[in-house]
Every structure is written in C-alpha cells, then in structure tokens.
C-alpha cells in the first residue's frame, strides 16, 4: 500500500477536476467563470462545515439534561460558526472583483440553475429553525420545488428534525432559578421598571423646550413602551403578541432568557449569556450575508430576474428581514434595565450562581 500523501489525503486530483467551465464547453471560455465556480464551491464546503458544527450543537443542547461543561463546548462550536460566517461575508468581496460585463460572458449559460437550489443552504436554514410559514414564496412555489429528489429529501428531513431554535427554547424552559421560592424577582423588577418609566415621563413633562405636539408624541411613545413591558408581566399579553407573530419564544423560555441577560455577571450565567449572544451573532451574520448577497446581485444583474426565475435582488432583499430566526434574542434588549435598578439576589441564590471550590 502506498504511503499517504498530501494530495491523496485531500483528494486533490478529484477536487481540482471539479471546475468545468460552461463557457469553455461552447468554445468561448470566459476568464471569470473559474472564479465564479470556485467561489460557489468554497461556499458549499463551508456550508458543509457549518452543518457539522450545528449538528454537534444540536446533539449537545438537545439532550434531556445539559451539563454545564457541555454548554461550553456548544458555545465553542457556535463561535466557530460565527468565525466561518465572517469568511463567507468576506468572500463576497472576492467575487465582486468580477464586473457585471464579465459576468455576462457566461451568465446565460447557467439558466435555470441558481443558488436557490443549494440544498445545504436550505438545510442550514432549517437546522437553525427557519419555519416554512416565514419563507417568502416566489413564482407561487414552495421553496423545495426547485430541488431534485435527493436534495429535496435531505432538506425535508432537516425541516422535520428539531431545530437549534427548538432545543435552545426547551433548554431555557428548564432554567432552574427563574422561579426561586425565596426571590420574587418579577415583582421587584416590575416596580423598578415602573420607577424608570415614571422618571422618563417626568422628564418629558418637564422639558420646557418641547412643543405640545412633540410632548404628546413622546408621551404616546412612552405609553407604548409601558404596554410592551406589560407583556413581560402578563402572560396573556405575551401570548397575544405571540399569536400575532411578534414573539416566537414560549413565555417561560422568554423569562429565562431575560433573567440570563440581566444577571449575566453571575458566573454560572456567563456561558448561557454568551450562548444567547452567539445566536444573535449567527442570526446577524446570516442577515448580513443575505443583504450583501442581495447588493451583489443588484450590482451584477441590476433589475433583471434571477437565473432561477425570482425577481432577483428584490426577493433577496426581502428575505433579510423575513428569514430571521433568533429575533426574540435581539428584542430582549428592550427589557434590560440598568444594573443599578436590578433587584439584588438573595445571598443563598447568589452563592448558587457563583463558582465554588471545595478543597
Ligand atoms: C454573481 C454572483 C451571484 C449572482 C448574480 C446571484 C444571483 C442570485 C439570485 C438572482 C438569486 C435568487 C434566486 C434566482 O432567481 O436565481 C440567488 C439566490 C441565492 N444565491 Fe446567489 N448569486 C450570486 C452568487 C452567489 C454565491 C457566491 C452564493 C454562495 C453559495 C449564492 C448563493 C445563493 C443562495 C443560497 C440563494 C438562495 C437565497 C434565498 O432563497 O434566500 N449566490 N442568487
């Protein structure tokens, strides 16, 4: 048996034989088509790695009992996801060195293929937790109709399986300290929120330079803020927002996430806090990629329709807002109050949330 070599290990002969220019096949080789192919192929390789990392996070966080040690590992994998996403964003700069005119040298040869058919991208979205009901439709077709049978099956399986959103939500619901018997957090928090908003109201009312109209507008805005805060204290209000699609997390999961964000200085809550922050970053980077991709499409093809038949950049731009998964974690910031107003934790609970060293 021959010794392992660099090329054999990486299957470079096969890998480097995978770039077939459609333009060369019709006898008009286009210089930039190689860049176009390699860019897409490297994306697909990174997508494979992202799926691998997310599978690992799903396995850890989807367990019935999640050990604190394992949260650190899940976090590590998520931080890798974030690092890879940054590379994915940067790759757009490389592809943008191709000009729209250069792209026209081979674009027509690509029809009807499209990034819309990237099964790994769809799996990624599904594994993160993008729901079918959120997806924008184009040409009145479901998103998987453009996939072939094998891809369609793997994408459907990813859609049926529990998602990262699901497992994080279930883990949050199990957070133990949210309803500690000796600590009536929510009553104190509510009183402090009321104090904070009353102070805001007094400031608006006392601002002499405001016109009556501007004052009325600011007070109305403040009343809306009070309403929003009420949804934290009153489950029925929260559920109404959820039914209207303005919240996704269940009420207990939302409360746990808020507690984690508020008391994240407690050592035990550091990793949960960083995990929720990593999910915000994953969602943010995906949104940034969607937007950068939409802008690139705009500058490459203007207002033309896509090779996959969509309205092109207009459809892509709308996905930036519509296809977000961890929006609830962004919205938690609305309910944060300054540390100085945070109800003090009872000493016993504080001790439980700290690190203890038993000699
Ligand atoms: C010149 C560069 C590119 C152009 C002009 C372009 C164009 C488009 C267009 C027009 C669509 C909408 C579907 C359609 O009608 O075809 C689309 C979707 C998509 N493209 Fe690209 N694309 C480019 C580069 C890339 C790259 C490098 C990737 C990396 C994998 C990519 C991945 C995707 C994905 C995943 C979708 C589906 C997005 C969604 O439905 O949310 N595209 N692209």
Short description:
The chain has helices spanning 6-9, 12-15, 22-25, 33-61, 68-95, 100-104, 119-128, 149-160, 164-173, 185-206, 212-233, 235-243, 251-262, 270-301, 313-322, 327-331, 347-352.
Account of the 3D structure:
With 359 residues, this protein is an all-alpha fold. Helices cover 62% and strands 0% of the residues. The chain has 17 helices and no strands. Helix 4 runs parallel beside helix 7, helix 5 packs parallel to helix 14 and helix 14 packs antiparallel against helix 15. The longest helix has 32 residues. It starts with 5 loop residues before the first helix and ends in a 7-residue tail after the last helix. The site of protoporphyrin IX containing FE has 24 residues, from helix 4, helix 14 and helix 15.
Shape: globular
Instruction: Please give the alpha-carbon distance between the first and last residues.
Output: 55 Å
Structural class: mainly alpha
Total helical segments: 17
The secondary-structure element order is HHHHHHHHHHHHHHHHH
Residue runs with pLDDT of under 50 for 5 or more positions: none
- The averaged pLDDT comes out at 93
Number of strands: 0
Q: Report helical residue fraction.
A: 55-70%
> Sheet with the most strands?
none
Bound molecules: protoporphyrin IX containing FE
């Amino acid at each position: 048996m021959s010794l392992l070599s660099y090329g054999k290990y990486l299957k470079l002969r096969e890998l480097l034989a995978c770039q077939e220019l459609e333009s060369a096949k019709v006898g008009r080789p286009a210089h930039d088509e190689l860049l176009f192919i390699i860019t897409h192929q490297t994306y697909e390789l990174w997508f494979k790695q992202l799926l691998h990392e997310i599978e690992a996070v799903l396995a850890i966080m989807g367990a019935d009992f999640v050990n604190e040690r394992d949260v650190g590992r899940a976090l590590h994998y998520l931080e890798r996801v974030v690092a890879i996403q940054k590379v994915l964003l940067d790759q757009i700069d490389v592809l943008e060195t191709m000009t729209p005119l250069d792209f026209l040298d081979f674009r027509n040869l690509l029809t009807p293929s499209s990034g819309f058919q990237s099964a790994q991208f769809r799996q990624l979205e599904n594994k993160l937790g993008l729901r079918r009901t959120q997806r924008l439709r184009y040409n009145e077709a479901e998103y998987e109709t453009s996939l072939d049978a094998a891809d369609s099956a793997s994408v459907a399986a990813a859609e049926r399986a529990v998602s990262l959103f699901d497992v994080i939500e279930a883990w949050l619901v199990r957070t133990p300290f949210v309803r500690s018997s000796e600590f009536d957090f929510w009553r104190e928090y509510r009183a402090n929120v009321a104090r904070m908003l009353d102070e805001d109201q007094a400031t608006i009312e006392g601002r002499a330079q405001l016109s009556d109209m501007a004052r009325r507008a600011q007070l109305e805005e403040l009343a809306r803020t009070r309403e929003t805060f009420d949804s934290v204290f009153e489950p029925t209000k929260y559920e109404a927002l959820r039914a209207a699609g303005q919240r996704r997390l269940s009420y207990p999961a939302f409360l746990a996430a808020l507690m984690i964000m508020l008391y994240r200085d407690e050592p035990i809550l550091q990793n949960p806090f960083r995990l929720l922050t990593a999910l915000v970053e994953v969602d943010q980077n995906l949104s940034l990629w969607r937007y950068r991709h939409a802008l690139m499409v705009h500058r490459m093809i203007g207002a033309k329709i896509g090779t996959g038949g969509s309205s092109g950049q207009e459809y892509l731009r709308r996905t930036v807002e519509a296809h977000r998964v961890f929006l609830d974690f962004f919205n938690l910031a609305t309910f944060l109050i300054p540390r100085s107003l945070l109800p003090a934790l009872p000493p016993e609970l504080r001790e439980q949330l700290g690190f203890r060293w038993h000699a």
